[in-house]
Amino acid sequence: MINRTPVWQPPLGQPGLRQPGLSQPELGQPQARLGSPLLPLNWTVVRQGLQAEPISRLMKFVSVLALISALTCVYLWQASTISEINDATATIKADAIKLERSNAGLAIDVTRWNGPAHIEDEARRQGMTPDQQPIYVVVPELTRDALGAGASGDLSTQLWLRLTGWLPNKAALAVAMR
Questions:
Q1: Does the pTM of the predicted model rise above 0.90?
Q2: Is residue 20 classed as helix, strand or coil in its secondary structure?
């Protein structure tokens, strides 16, 4: 097993000098690794390492490439979402037009079914017959010439006598009024 923990020793002649950002472990404690919770990471060292000339160009290229790919992914996600919304809107509009046409057809059917001709046809189809037609009485026109020469009294009395065949007298009216 290879020990990957860097071992740092002070240069010869300076036994108390320590590496900046690193602390020496005390006896009985585990040795701290770079980036572990026991040893805080010194970002200045990391940044200086990233700014080294050969790696720096590569890091700039990779970071620009990562940024471009992230923006491309966001653009494609937005475009697909907008496309889905447009498709759903077109479907809803087509359904609305279909429902409006269906509603217009149903309104025409209701108007036709409530019409008198349809009601009469449906009644005949089901075997229903209309009530008897009312009988209209044709009242003859009376003139003095039509009643005859010997007729006496006013025209309404004569008409009554001709339609009913009898004339009430005072005694019959008195009985009817009681």
A1: no
A2: coil
Interacting residues of 50 by C-beta distance below 8 A, sequence separation 6+: 56, 59
| pLDDT, position 64 | 93
Which residues are within 8 A (CB) of 23 and not within 5 positions of it... i.e. 6 or more apart?
Answer: 32, 39
Q: How far apart are CA 101 and CA 98, in angstroms?
A: 5
Q: Where are the alpha helices (DSSP H) in the chain?
A: 43-50, 53-113, 116-125, 144-147, 155-164, 170-177
pLDDT at 159: 73
Q: Do 55 and 77 touch, CB atoms closer than 8 A?
A: no
Neighbouring CB atoms inside 10 A of 40's CB total 12
